[in-house]
Amino acid sequence: MSRVRRERWIGFLIVLPSIILIAIFVYGFIAWTGLVSLSKWDGVEPNYSWAGLETYKQLFTQIGGVTAKRFSIDLWNTLFFTLLFLLFCVGVGLLLAILLDQKIKGEGIFRTIYLFPMSLSFVVTGVVWQWIFAPGTADYPRGINALLHQLGLDVLRWKWYTDTSSIGPFHLALIPVIIAAAWQLTGYTMAMYLAGLRGIPEELREAARVDGATEFSIYRHIILPMLQPITFSALIVLGHISLKIFDLVYTMTGKGTGFVTDVPGIFMFEATFQGNHYSLGAAISIVMLIVVALVIVPYLVYTFRREVEL
Amino acid sequence: MRARTVPSADRHPLSLFLNRIDPSRIAIYLLLILFALLFLLPVYVLLVSSFKTFAEVQDLSRMWSLPTGFNLESFHAAWYGIPEKGLRGLSNNLLNSLYLTIPATLISSILGSLNGYIFSKWKFPGANVIFPLMLFGMFIPYQSTLIPLTQTLSAIGLGGTLWGLILVHIIYGIPITTLIFRNYYAEVPNDLVEAAGIDGAGILGIYWRVLFPLSLPGFVVVIIWQFTNIWNEFLFAVTILQNPALQPITVALRNLSGSQIKEWNMVMAGTLISALPTLLIYILMGRFFIRGLLAGSVKG
Predict the structure, then answer these.
(1) Which of A34, A94, B203, B250 would disulfide-bridge A7, Cβ 3.0–4.6 Å?
(2) For residue B55, what are the domain limits?
(3) Does the beta carbon of B110 lie under 8 angstroms from any beta carbon of chain A?
């Protein structure tokens, strides 16, 4: 065996334990969870007798009563949460990055302020925003409502995350939770966009200015198109976070009255570890996995295929 | 647009100053300041609430007002608890978080460094397939591993222990630490590696003599990233550790705020305490924190 081949073999042995651990704890456990979701395990003691797709049917049809209703509400909530959250993060993040890119005095301070929530736990965010958006009662307003009352803006008082109204299938009670999530993660898109803007050579803008382009049209026609790959990455990374969100919602509001702020992550946790409905919890988590994989797998394939080509 | 001409006829200092002000610049600064205030709003609430006394914080109409004095009662309560009301303090849980986060961070960083070295400089056949398969592990909803995980940890005697949680964080930290180091080492010229190889160094010798000494910035990024993530993590911790005496601070904080508590000054002080370690790291080493952040989006 040549020396290089021997060295390569040693290299493989170095990463082998990690590969085995990931194979077991990621892929093995997913398969195991899949098995549980197809079983009749509904209680403290494991029960692997075969139930087929019974639990999934329960989740997706009206047969399961409350279960079925809750899961379809959860999926709509996830969709609404994800759409609005992405809109916030991309919109505000891009705006802040463009503003910061105007040769701002004290840029470092602003950047630090917009980004610090990223270093916090979702639990911390949840606790603080729960306190801020707690509505109180008509006579004793709390949080934002108390502030609005002091400012004489009582018309704007609202029940925030305890509201039960909806537009179509979209529950408005989610909006305060989405604001909290966007508060935490907008800094991420801002940092990505700012890094992207800094990568665009100044000569490009200068050339456009010489050609008589206005600042606005430089952004519209030159800079924004160049930021598209960043938007794509940000949507994937933030989108998959929001599709599997748990800690923030669990801390801030829980499932809410009539599941107005419920998400699959909370349903899974409560079904499995508080209700001992293991097959149900497993089925919910497999659906979550499939949804996230639909977003992430094409992204990974795309990224690595391009890398191999380069 | 940027070009400004100062009328030479008018040399009065005030009008010189006024002429230099560009309304669009003012609008930009105003917007930036407005957003900064919005971002700091929760910090304001945290600070004013945690310096209030229990009597003060109960008056909800004064929630947004400054505390009447610089009162540390709530920090005392958050740290030691209020035993007569059955409220646990967080001091113990803060220590648990440290016992959990420090070893898990160090071990997963070392593993990531070795893996990243192999995946960037010693690609074995199939490495280009195995690496993305590993990376997938950092995106999955961990809910899809929780049932087997709790079963397995119990079976190997680590159920409900801090060691079990440390192991979990090490394993699920492998993809991200490997990714960051792989991208980091990709920047190291292959010539350096080959030159060391010609000098007779083996695969581990090259790592130890060439790559490792260059790794300090990489380790700083990865350690900050892992420390922040593990410190802030909630799902694994709340699932694996039921014993309140063993729980890390995120779980204890959520239990405190989730109970029918009226001592909001205590909760806010507890929130500050649990946020402080990662916040300090961010403020002191923000540059490295951002690098980890950008590396997390796969391409680096």
Answers:
(1) B203
(2) 13-75
(3) no
